[in-house]
Specification:
- The chain is an alpha/beta fold and 272 residues long.
- Helices cover 22% and strands 24% of the residues.
- Strand 2 and strand 3 form a beta hairpin.
- The chain starts with 8 loop residues before the first strand and ends in a 7-residue tail after the last helix.
- It contains 8 helices and 12 strands.
- The protein has one domain: Ribonuclease Z/Hydroxyacylglutathione hydrolase-like (Metallo-beta-lactamase, Chain A), CATH 3.60.15.10.
- The radius of gyration is 17 Å and the shape is globular.
- The chain has a 7-stranded mixed β-sheet with strand order 4-1-2-3-5-6-7. Strands 8-9-10-11-12 form a 5-stranded mixed β-sheet.
């Protein structure tokens, strides 16, 4: 995928941990007997532009994740707050001028209120889906909210509304930074952010991809999606666009060895 010549650095921010079922990683093996694993909750700082840019913003509260969505153990240890993680790179929360949300699940947009000067970029279709999710009350996890936190949605349409920028499909926000909408994939309005970085084109894909090997190289969709064919087309497009894929919950993103990280997160080109 050829983008602008401007290059950026993409730094992962560790904004908590969650214990989840391995069934989330892959659809054609989804059952309750696959065990559980602790995964990171990641956001991404894009350096190299005029101002710092974020992709996603972590969760509002570990307690809400467990009580409202009936999920496993969530933790936000000391040092994993959004301001603390930004400070590792010399950035203050008020200096972030743009936060791009891949989608509006609780663990991706809960920290937006900690960014007082940032415009909040999200797809219009995603905000509509988050405001009125089509979930039954009887689900064991997710419940009627389908992993959207009502407090997050309320903030988007009220206290944060003046700073919300709604996209209508694919949009190039900056030279070398493009948002691509994948309708009815992980969520109705999920988008991926492709960044022309010093390591090649990095795809910050939110939860479109849980594991690069399973979901992209082997072309098996992750466990949560809205349309099977839409998700398969999205996996193909992600593989074609990105040189490196950064899922939001894969510990491999935090691998300190650059060569090992790139090798593990390269999509290859499995699709014709």
């Amino acid at each position: 995928m050829k983008m602008e010549s401007k290059t950026y650095r993409v730094q992962p921010l560790l904004l908590g941990e969650a214990e989840v079922g391995c069934a989330l990683d892959v659809f054609w093996g989804m059952n309750k007997d696959q065990g559980r694993v602790t995964v990171p909750i990641l956001a991404f700082l894009i350096e190299g532009g005029t101002d710092p840019i974020l992709v996603d913003a972590g969760m509002r509260s570990a307690e809400r994740a467990m009580s409202i969505h009936r999920l496993g153990l969530h933790r936000l240890p000391l040092g994993m707050s959004l301001p603390d993680q930004l400070a590792k790179y010399g950035v203050k929360a008020e200096e972030v001028k743009t936060v791009i949300l891949t989608h509006l699940h609780y663990d991706h947009c809960g920290g937006c209120e900690l960014l007082p000067n940032a415009r909040i970029v999200v797809q219009r279709s995603e905000l509509a889906a988050a405001a009125a999710p089509m979930g039954p009350r009887t689900l064991d996890i997710g419940s009627r909210e389908l992993f959207y936190d009502r407090q997050d949605v309320a903030a988007m349409v009220d206290t944060l509304w003046d700073r919300v920028e709604l996209l209508e499909g694919d949009t190039r926000l900056f030279p070398g930074i493009e948002c691509v909408l994948y309708p009815n994939s992980h969520t109705p309005g999920s988008q991926c952010v492709y960044i022309d970085s010093m390591d090649g084109v990095i795809g910050c894909v939110g939860d479109m991809v849980r594991k690069v090997d399973l979901n992209v190289r082997k072309a098996i969709p992750p466990g949560i999606y809205y349309g099977l064919e839409e998700m398969q087309r999205a996996m193909r497009d992600i593989a074609l666009r990105g040189d490196i894929i950064y899922p939001a919950h894969d510990p491999l993103v935090l691998e300190p060895d650059r060569e090992k990280r790139i090798a593990a997160l390269s999509p290859g080109k499995p699709w014709p």
